[in-house]
Amino acid sequence: MNDAISILCARLIAHRFIPRVDPLARRALVDEDFRRALEHRLNEVGLTLLENPYAEHIAVGLQQDMEAFVFGEGEAWLSNNMNLPRDAIALLIVLWALIILPKRERQVTRAEKEREGQADMFGAEKPLAQGEDVSVGVPEDALFADFRDKLGGKTRMNANLGQLARLGFIERRNKMLLEGPLLDLMLDYSTLAPRIIEGALSDVLKRRAADAGSTTE
Predict the structure, then answer these.
(1) Which of 45, 71, 97 is the last residue of a domain?
(2) Distances, alpha carbon 21 to alpha carbons 3, 35, 36, 72, 195, in Å
(3) What is the pLDDT of residue 202?
(4) CB count, 10 Å around CB of 160?
(5) Which end of the chain is more exposed for a tag (fewer CB within 10 A), N or C?
(6) Is 142 in the same domain as 204?
(7) Are residues 55 and 130 located together in one domain of the fold?
(8) Would you call 15 helix, strand, or coil by DSSP?
(9) Which pTM was predicted?
(10) 70 three-class SS
(11) Rounded to whole angstroms, how far apart are CA atoms 62 and 135?
(12) Same domain flag for 90 and 167
C-alpha cells in the first residue's frame, strides 16, 4: 500500500492532475483505507486531495492554513497563486460560469433520475452523469462579442485565454472553449455558484440561455 500511495502522490505533484479513471485514482475513490492513507500522507506536507464526483480528474492543492506560509510574502496570493492578472481572473470566472454551472445542473438532474433506478455500488469511482450531452463548450466569437469591451479587448482576452489553457483550466479546439482538467476542481462551486447566480453575471447567463433556446426552436 505504501508504494502505491507514494507513486500516486508523486504523480499528482508532478503532473498536477490525473484522470479519474486511472487505476490508482480509482482506487483512492473506492478504497476507504487507501483514501485515508493517501490523505494522511498529503496532509503531512501541507497538501490536500482535490476531488469531486462531477469532475473527470483529481488533483492536489494546498491546505488552507498553509497558504499564508507559502504565498504570504505579498498580497497577490489573496486573489490567486498563479500570477494571473485581474482581467484573466475575471475571464476565468466568466468561463467557469458559462461551462461549469450548466454542466452541473445537467449532471445533478441526470444523477437524481439515475438514483430513482438501480443503485450502482461502484458509482464513486466515476464522475456523476458524464457524457457528451453534459459538457458544453463556449464559442470564442460569442465570448469576444459579449465581454471584449469589459475584459480588455479581443487581443488581451486572446492572450489570457492562452494562459488559462496552459494552466489547464480550459481547452481550445476549433474556436471552441472547452472545460479543462482543473476548471471544476480549483474553483469552489459552493462559494462561487450563489454569488454568480444571484449576482452580476445572472443577467448575462439568462440572456445566453434565452438565445440558446430561441436558436433551437
Answers:
(1) 71
(2) 19, 15, 19, 35, 32
(3) 61
(4) 20
(5) C
(6) yes
(7) no
(8) helix
(9) 0.75
(10) helix
(11) 28
(12) yes
Q: Kindly indicate the confidence band of residue 131, based on its pLDDT and cuts at 50, 70 and 90.
A: very low
Q: Which of 196, 188, 193, 192 is nearest to 50 (CA)?
A: 188
Report in angstroms the alpha-carbon separations of 26 from 57, 90, 123, 179, 217: 10, 33, 11, 21, 41
- Domain for residue 117, yes or no? yes
Cβ within 8 Å of residue 167, ≥6 positions away: 82, 180, 182
Picking from 71, 106, 124, the residue at the C-terminal end of a domain is 71
- Within a domain: residue 77? no
Same domain, 37 and 120: no
Per-residue three-class SS string for 117-176: CCCCCCHHHCCCCCCCCCCCCEEHHHHHHHHCCCCCHHHHHHHHHHHHHHCCCEEEECCE
Residue 151 contacts residue 52 (beta carbons within 8 Å): no
How far apart (Å, rounded) are the C-alpha atoms in residues 140 and 179? 13
Of 137, 134, 131, 145, the residue nearest 177 (C-alpha): 137
> Higher pLDDT residue, 63 or 205?
63
The angle subtended at Cα 196 by Cα 83 and Cα 53, nearest 5°, is: 80
Residues 145 and 108 sit within 8 Å (Cβ to Cβ): no
Structural domain that includes position 117: 86-216
What cell does 16 get?
498536477
Q: How many domains does the chain have?
A: 2
Question: For 147-169, what is each residue's pLDDT tens digit?
Answer: 999 899 999 999 999 999 999 99
Rg over alpha carbons for the chain, rounded to the nearest Å, is 19
Tell whether 31 and 125 lie within a shared domain: no
